[in-house]
Amino acid sequence: MPMIWLITLAPLPFFVICFRFSPVLLFEQRAKPATDEWRAMHIKATFVLLTWFTLPYIGQVYFLWSHWIMQVAEPGLAWGIQSVLLAALLIALFARLTPRRLRQESVMLVGLLLIFFSTTFVYGANLMLSGPAVHSPLVILGSHAADPTDGEDLSTLTVQLADGSETTLNVLDNTYKAALSGEELVLCQRKSPLGIVFVGIHRPDTHR
Please, are residues 185 and 178 in contact by the beta-carbon 8 Å criterion? Predict the structure, then answer.
């Protein structure tokens, strides 16, 4: 799936820029007494602008892919642990490469972005490394219909996975109604060699 490759590789330019130019990246205001030579040798990066560029990407992974397309099976600890380890490694590396005079604010701001990028990168990398999809009949163990008066309440289905464990998935209203009406649906599972299991529900004639 080309989209998986795009999700996985999208943060790489940001990583390269941060680490390659860490000695001259400046996120705070340039010091007024600074010489013209000092100003010319440093790159002023606007954190707000960087955030606006990253929000659509982060939102796509968090609120579209991981919530609706291929969800991470509960409890999702592997995703969280891998994300924390990667973020800690990247932040430590960036801090080491950044001069002390720029370290305090740069590490804090870049570290925040690295945390978000790490979680999305781990999601995409695991999905990219996952084996072929395994399909099985949908076994519903529980259900919850969205409350129309609560815009944040989502319809969910608790389903049984191939190994006998269970997980709760967010589903669209039409999928929820189709599942409870007895329409034939299948459970789609992909397992990463790093331990993350991705789950989705679709009709038998739809391939993912």
Answer: yes
| pTM higher than 0.70 | yes
Q: Cα–Cα distance between 95 and 75 in angstroms, integer? A: 32
Other Cβ atoms less than 10 A from the Cβ of 30: the count is 11
State pLDDT tens for residues 111-165.
Answer: 888 898 899 999 999 999 998 999 999 999 999 998 888 766 889 999 999 889 9
10 Å Cβ neighbour count for 155?
A: 20
- Three-state SS sequence of the chain: CHHHHHHHHCCHHHHHHHHHCCCCEECCCCCCCCCHHHHHCCEECCHHHHHHHHHHHHHHHHHHHHHHHCEECCCCHHHHHHHHHHHHHHHHHHHHHCCHHHHHHHHHHHHHHHHHHHHHHHHHHHHHHCCCCEEEECCEEEEECCCCCCCCCCCEEEEECCCCCEEEEECCHHHHHHHHCCCCCEEEEEECCCCCEEEEEECCCCCC
Phi/psi of residue 71, each to 5°? -85, 150
Supply 129's token pair.
Answer: 């490394």
The predicted-structure confidence for 152-162, as pLDDT tens digits, reads as follows 688 999 999 98
Tokens matching residue 76 = 């999702």
